[in-house]
Amino acid sequence: MCGRPVVASLLDVTPPTPDLLSTPGLDPEEDVARLLAHLRTQAEGLDEREAARRLAQVGANEIRRGTSTPWWRSLLDQLIHPLALLLWVAAALSLITGVLSLAVAIVVVILLNAAFAFAQERQAEHATEALRDLLSIQNRQISVENIQKTVADYYKIKVADMYSKKRPASIARPRQIAMYLAKELTQKSLPEIGELFGGRDHTTVLHAVRKMSAERQQMTELNQQLHVLEQTLKG
User: Fold this and answer.
1) CB atoms inside a 10 Å sphere around CB 226
2) Is the pTM value of this prediction over 0.70?
3) What is the DSSP letter of 159?
4) Which CATH superfamily is domain 144-234 in?
5) How many other CB atoms are found less than 10 A from the CB of residue 124?
6) Is residue 21 over pLDDT 50?
């Protein structure tokens, strides 16, 4: 990332264009309810299915890590910026014509400008790194969809089986395990979990949670499987 020198920024600052301010639907003082409607969301955030749909449509909310520019290269870029080059020429001409004080003043301006721009650039890079780390933490939060996919992969079934009405043990048991983990690892209520498992009743979810909880205490193999799944989901 290469920032623009302070002097250059001061010389070419332009006010917002009338077209931008008059863009239909863009109102900085819009009330919250209308804003949420425009964003097609709600105060509690997106529900699990809508979040999954938007994830598939636009991709993960992440900042990709680029190649970091060495500090000396960033500083050099500020010293050889086109405006800085003009000032170097002015300083040289002042020195040639014998106006030493002016030449020194121009060099001081160049160096101060480069130092301020360099500091701003490094600060922006640190802010970007902090934001990337924050988004990374948020992206690791466990969702019901993530649980369904992880359990389906572990037991070699299709994710669609989580929503289906199929009842073979090879499908029903992983589905119950996924329901149990959804209750244990998310803040979803029983009705919400049931809805995300093909519109099942909350009593079905409650039965699965109680069954897996009891069997986990009695069956070492199941407890080990659940532990592996939990560690995988928690990353």
Assistant:
1) 20
2) no
3) G
4) DnaA protein, C-terminal DNA-binding domain (1.10.1750.10)
5) 12
6) no
